[in-house]
Description:
Elements: H1 2-117, E1 119-123, H2 133-145, H3 149-155, E2 156-162, H4 165-169, E3 175-180, H5 183-193, E4 198-202, E5 225-227, E6 233-235, H6 241-246, H7 256-263, H8 279-282, E7 290-296
Antiparallel strand pairs: 1-3, 1-7, 2-3, 4-7, 5-6
Helix pairs in contact: 2-3
Amino acid sequence: MLLAEQTSSSQSLQTVQSTLNMMQEMMVKMHELIAKNHDDKKTEMRTEIGDVKNEIHNLNIKIGEMQQKMLKNEQKLDIVEARTEKLEKRIEESEQNWKELCGEIYESDIYGARKGIFFLRFQNLMEDKKEDIRAVMINLIAVALQKPSSEIESEVDEVYKVHTQYAQKHKLPCEVHIHFAQKSTHDLLYMKTRDGPLFICMYPAEAPSNTPSPIFCPAFTTTKTVFWGENVRKTRRSMDLDKELDRIPIPKGLQKEIILKAIMLSCNRNSAPLIIQLTNFLKFAKSDWEQIGMHVY
């Protein structure tokens, strides 16, 4: 009986011992598993921490680059602002200059328009290299307006010659431009010449009392017209006038050049033909006498 009890107790002890061993082995395995898991977690954490550090480092680099770019942009903005200020100043100066220029142009236009009111051009005035064009024009205008030369002298502002291509091409005298100081004189002379060219006959001081007065005749159709005698009209170019004179008997006391000046008359296409008889005043003419034709417009 005792032997059986001892045997059963020993078996139970062995069972307990094996159970304890199994539990111990399980504990060891659990410790190993926990340690392994801990190492894995630790490694994983280290890896993740390293990745986070790398990301933070990259972010810091990017932030630094962004800060540099922002700094450069701020510098560029400063430069742009400075340029904008300069540009605005230039624009203001340009606007001011434009205003002044427009004002000057406006004033010059007004001045030119006002000056044009007092302006006349004279054509077909025979030239002399030694002549005083101002004195000649003052005398001619004085005769045309029947005023004293001293009065016309104060009313004439500028007198000068202008070379035109038309005059050079056709070998005509230069145009004479006159600016009058008073509009009344301009208008009076223009009214006398608006219907056609103005022809002024200049006679010597010792001319007889019955010498005809200066002629203000209307225009006629042809470009150059030769008038001689009664009811005779011959149309010729200016280059043919010299040949035409060879066919005409010249009165005594008259030079051929003077008659050539007398018969070179300006004209207007739109007016009716008109025969001007030179015999009425040629009989009073002398060698120092000449007729000057002026076309005023």
